[in-house]
Write a sequence for this structure.
């Protein structure tokens, strides 16, 4: 039997209401199914496969949004990696026409599609994995560092509001490299930057262990990074 691919966005999940996924706006989050990277600390493994189980039909999502007009202010496309899907631009356009602001959570894994959707987006939560030369060790995909930074540069050139985030697991990055990464982002003009520490349960790479640094080293690091970029935030 031939199974035809759906000619619509593959949606693996939906959070109907959140206050934390789009700055200062009530939003919902649409989880786009599938990711072409395999970040070793990924704890969202059910979103990596391209088959949504059970998933939502795109019409179901549109019906939901229709009923939320006037209640929700923004719709966030998250993942997985939304850019993996060729029907993303059409889906974003439809949501735009319904009057919602549109947010995008992405690591920019497909720069060409990122440049296509950027003009339709109001805010981006952008995942900076590491310095370009060290990213492939996290994502386990060759060339991902170059794509991650190519998309970051597109974002910087677009003048769209954004926040950069980096997830830290101390077996994958050390303090010195995090300092260099922060310096590089500050030099490029990134202002809104959050460092979050990886959740260590349910990670894709089961050989990774706990990710801990002694408290005084964390405090020293925070102080160093804050000197480099005073607006940096830490999500512990
Ligand atoms: S980019 Fe990495 S962390 Fe995000 S969904 Fe894909 S594999 Fe997981």
């Amino acid at each position: 039997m031939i199974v035809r691919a759906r000619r619509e966005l593959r949606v693996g999940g939906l959070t109907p209401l959140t206050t934390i996924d789009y700055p200062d706006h009530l939003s919902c989050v649409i989880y786009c199914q599938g990711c072409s990277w395999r970040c070793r600390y990924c704890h969202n493994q059910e979103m990596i496969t391209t088959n949504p189980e059970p998933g939502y039909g795109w019409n179901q999502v549109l019906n939901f949004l229709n009923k939320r007009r006037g209640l929700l202010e923004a719709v966030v496309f998250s993942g997985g990696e939304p850019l993996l899907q060729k029907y993303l631009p059409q889906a974003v356009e439809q949501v735009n026409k319904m009057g919602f602001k549109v947010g995008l959570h992405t690591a920019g894994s497909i720069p060409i599609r990122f440049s296509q959707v950027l003009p339709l987006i109001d805010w981006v939560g952008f995942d900076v994995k590491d310095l370009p030369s060290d990213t492939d060790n996290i994502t386990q995909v060759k060339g991902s560092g170059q794509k991650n930074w190519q998309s970051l540069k597109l974002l910087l050139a677009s003048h769209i509001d954004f926040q950069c985030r980096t997830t830290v697991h101390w077996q994958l990055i050390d303090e010195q490299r995090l300092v260099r990464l922060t310096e590089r982002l500050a030099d490029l003009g990134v202002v809104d930057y959050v460092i979050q520490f990886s959740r260590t349960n349910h990670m894709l790479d089961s050989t990774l262990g706990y990710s801990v640094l002694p408290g005084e080293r964390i405090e020293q690091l925070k102080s160093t990074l804050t000197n480099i970029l005073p607006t940096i935030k830490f999500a512990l």
Summary: DSSP finds seven helices and eight strands in the chain. The longest helix spans residues 144-158. The longest strand covers residues 11-18.
